[in-house]
Amino acid sequence: MNQREGLESMITRNLFLFLSQNKFVKGKARKWGPKLGANNLIAGETIDDAMETVRELNAQGLSGTVDHLGEFVYTKEEAEESANYCIRTLDAIAESGVDCNLSLKLTSLGLDVDRNLCRDNMLAILERADQLGGIFVRIDMEDYSHLDATLELLHELRQSYTAVGTAVQSYLYRAEKDVERLKGTNIRLIKGAYKESPEVAYQKQEDVDANYIKIIKRHMENGSYAAVATHDHNVIAEIKKFAEENNIPRDQFEFQMLYGFRTDMQKEIVEEGYKMRIYIPFGEDWYGYYMRRMAERPQNIVFGVRGLLSK
């Protein structure tokens, strides 16, 4: 990438990250969702829609993790409603018998309202997941301002429940230390999707990529379960080679991709005998998620362009 391309990419990323947090645009966006291509990346609005998508993916040998989209929770009532929705989703996973985990965000459970409220909501969710046979629950990592609170709460939760993990973002300088701290935990390893300050995060893509490979290998070397979340075929090839050369069993790691992206590669990975899990977002509050996906990679804008041209 030359300097001009890098500048254009940065401008595009910053624009979409700004739009992802703009409440006015969000309020107008829902009716434009199909035209923007959101229906290519979001598995419907209801739990039934999500379960149907998971069944279709399971039939192709793909595992799933579902995430009910929701942001900007400001009241106890909203947080409790979100927690109840997570519990209903767990019930649906168990009842349908699909191969699927649950992903969630602590802010949707009240982290910004009251930490104890968020903790109690998480305990209720994990207790139901345990009752239903130990469905795994992934705490999605959010922006840097929520990082310490997320890891502290995870540590507390893991004193009683082991089927819970989180994610580590390689664009943060502290990512390697966090991986060491989370030894023995099932971690989703990602590059990162939020705009962070140069004080806490790498700004150059090559630095983010190099740190990404480093933390994946470190977590696998520690004997911990690694969920390698990437669409980068070069990263996937390197991790396959690293696992083979270091006798790391295939049941110690999996690859993950987002719903709607690189579907041919997803199937190829399964055919090669690796576990492939698809992150499946659903719900009415799709806007923030969709805009962050546009910000991550300018190539993703093609979904929106295709949608607009098809109307």
TrEMBL record:
EC number(s) given by UniProt: 1.5.5.2
Molecular-function GO term, any one: proline dehydrogenase activity
Pathway: Amino-acid degradation; L-proline degradation into L-glutamate; L-glutamate from L-proline: step 1/2
Record Pfam families: Pro_dh
Signal peptide region: none
UniProt-annotated binding residues for FAD: 141, 169, 191-193, 230-231
GO biological process terms on file: L-proline catabolic process to L-glutamate
UniProt cross-references to InterPro entries, sorted A to Z: FAD-linked_oxidoreductase-like, PRODH_bac_arc, Proline_DH_dom, Proline_oxidase
Record-linked Gene3D superfamilies: 3.20.20.220
Co-factor(s): FAD
Name of the protein this chain belongs to: proline dehydrogenase
Organism (species): Salisediminibacterium beveridgei
Gene name of the record: putA
